[in-house]
Automatic annotation (TrEMBL):
Designated name of the protein: Laccase
SUPFAM superfamilies: Cupredoxins
Organism: Gossypium anomalum
Signal peptide: 1-28
Reported cofactor(s): Cu cation
Boundaries of every Plastocyanin-like domain copy: 37-150, 164-313, 420-552
One biological process term in Gene Ontology: lignin catabolic process
EC numbers: 1.10.3.2
Family, per entry: Belongs to the multicopper oxidase family.
Chain's role: Lignin degradation and detoxification of lignin-derived products.
Length: 570
């Protein structure tokens, strides 16, 4: 009897041991970080400014985790601004409270306050990033989030010798918060930036920048996995490396069927993983980024940022100037189209084919007539108006006293309505010569309600109001398949036949073609309130956003849990 008992205890012990090792193999680790938001002196373009940073670092710390890991990031706000942090592209399954957009999923962290973001990476591998989601703080509050395969698993391509984040940014020789405040006051377009940056350095084509230029050393024959992130506030960017071919293997933390290219275009918010092989004559080669400017007759920052890919065996000392890549013309939409049409999933994927919600959203700019009580100085947009932007003619306004997610969960009325239109309230020739009477949007905090599990298609249609433009539309809490894109007005009779339901790419941000459209599909399997917006911050400022309210499904596993106890109060 006793032996039998001992035996069963031993057996139970063994069982527990095996199952706990299995569990630790599959469920990942907890990675803890502390982010102190603080003003830090930063010198760029000959001038020193106090800029808001994380832990005094610019760019902020790179987070390196594995698929399956959980993150706990304690954010302590020692700055004089309200702040929140968004984990761009993280699916946040049932952890909407950790998503971060100010007044959408949380009230901001006040100066002196703190909040711990807790979430798990589930099934995502590649490159994402994090950034402030409050006013224009993300101009300097951003960094890379690298997700490697689970322990014991490997990349679906040969292991590179090196891995380097390439974070593209945008720098103002002024306080970016003042830049946006001024634009909000006047109603005019904000000043464009003074430089682009690679890993926070403008590079040696700018004044006072040569000794700080980012250098990326490589040995002949080696391969480097460049994790390119477009963290610029307001600009889609081209990126190329002189004389080197890039092999695209991933984007937005999903793998892509590899293809080669000499140039990348990243909409603001997008990431692209590329392999680069040191197979050229040992020398120094510029990697460079500059604007893709799809809107015509609109001022933009036309400067070029550079870093240097330096073969270790190349002559140091009085080395000749690095070789410059040729970048496409600023307005080269053909290159952008060819590039974005090269994206495929590596294999056949499960695209929803039955659709429960077929939506059509216009995205574009607008003009608000000047309110009678406004001074002229506050109406500096075209012809004495104020610039605006909208989706389906609704210019999105954030609540001020509570977040949308809290209002939803606690059933607080009067914060938002759920009447966001599923189709444009007025149909017109979106990409034609639009009548001035259609320029003025309405303002509102309108959400679109989705039943848990509903299969959603959204046609995103650019408009030519004021200026057609390539809009990087980002959806929080989800990845979506981009099943088609094209130019002109979307026409279901003609364009449905172009849908790729076999191997479309899965992404969190789609660059909607200027004067064109893109079609995305996803399944609403993550309850909560999820912002969808243009990732050009100037356009969010003007209202180019909406939010989905995804209802709970059945039972705990399909429902949003209660908020964490340290969720900031308004
Ligand atoms: Cu990277 Cu709502 O944004």
């Amino acid at each position: 009897m006793e032996t039998l008992k001992n035996f069963s205890i031993m057996f139970l012990g063994l069982f527990l041991l095996i199952s706990s090792t299995l569990l630790s193999l599959t469920s990942g680790e907890i990675q803890r970080y502390q982010f102190v938001i603080q003003a830090t002196p930063v010198k760029r373009l000959c001038n020193t400014h106090n800029r808001i940073t994380v832990n005094g670092m610019f760019p902020g710390p790179t987070l390196e985790v594995r698929n399956g890991d959980s993150l706990e990031v304690k954010v302590v706000n020692k700055a004089r601004y309200n702040v929140t942090i968004h984990w761009h592209g993280v699916r946040q399954m049932r952890t909407g409270w950790a998503d971060g957009p100010e007044f959408v999923t949380q009230c901001p962290i006040r100066p002196g306050g703190s909040y711990t973001y807790r979430f798990t990476i589930q099934g995502q591998e590649g490159t994402l990033w994090w950034h402030a989601h409050s006013s224009w703080l993300r101009a300097t509050v951003y960094g890379a989030l690298i997700i490697r395969p689970r322990l014991g698993e490997s990349y679906p391509f040969p292991k590179p010798n090196l891995e380097t984040p390439i974070v593209l940014g945008e720098w103002w020789d002024a306080n970016p918060i003042d830049v946006v405040r001024e634009a909000t006051r006047t109603g005019a377009a904000p000043n464009v930036s003074d430089a682009y940056t690679i890993n926070a350095q403008p590079g040696d084509l700018y004044k006072c920048s040569s000794k700080d230029t980012t250098i990326i050393p490589i040995d002949a024959g080696e391969t480097n996995l460049l994790r390119v992130i477009n963290a610029a506030l307001n600009q889609p960017l081209f990126f190329a490396v002189a004389d080197h071919t890039l092999t695209v293997v991933g984007a937005d933390a999903t793998y892509i069927k590899p293809f080669t290219t000499s140039v990348l275009m990243l909409g603001a918010g997008q990431t692209t993983d590329v392999l680069i092989k040191a197979d050229q004559r040992p020398a120094r080669y510029y990697m460079a980024a500059r604007a893709y400017q799809s809107a015509q007759n609109v001022p933009f920052d036309n400067t070029t940022t550079t870093a240097i890919l330096e073969y270790k065996s190349s002559k140091k000392g009085n080395a000749p100037k690095p070789i410059m890549p040729s970048l496409p013309a600023y307005n080269d939409t053909n290159t952008v189209t060819a590039f974005s049409r090269s994206f495929r999933s590596p294999r056949k994927v499960q695209v929803p084919t039955e659709i429960d919600e077929s939506l059509f959203f216009t995205v574009g700019l607008g003009l608000n007539n000047c309110p009678p009580n406004f001074r002229r100085s506050r109406c500096q947009g075209p012809n004495g108006t104020r610039l605006a932007a909208s989706m389906n003619n609704v210019s999105f306004m954030l609540p001020r006293s509570i977040s949308l997610l809290q209002a939803h969960q606690q059933g607080i009325p009067g914060v938002f309505t759920t009447d966001f239109p599923g189709t444009p309230p007025v149909k017109f020739d979106y990409t034609g010569n639009v009548s001035r009477t259609l320029f003025q949007p309405i303002t509102g905090t309108k959400l679109y309600k989705l039943k848990f599990g509903s299969r959603v298609q959204v046609v995103l249609q650019d408009t030519s109001i004021i200026a057609p433009e390539n809009h990087p539309i980002h959806l929080h809490g989800y990845d979506f398949y981009i099943i088609a894109e094209g130019f002109g007005n979307f026409n279901p009779k003609r364009d449905t036949s172009k849908f790729n339901l076999v191997d479309p790419p899965l992404r969190n941000t789609v660059a909607v073609p200027a004067n064109g459209w893109a079609v995305i599909r996803f399944v609403a399997d993550n309850p909560g309130v999820w912002l969808m917006h243009c990732h050009l911050d100037v356009h969010i400022t003007w209202g180019l956003a909406m939010a989905f309210l995804v209802e709970n499904g059945v039972g705990e596993l399909q429902s949003l849990p209660a908020p964490p106890s340290d969720l900031p109060l308004c």
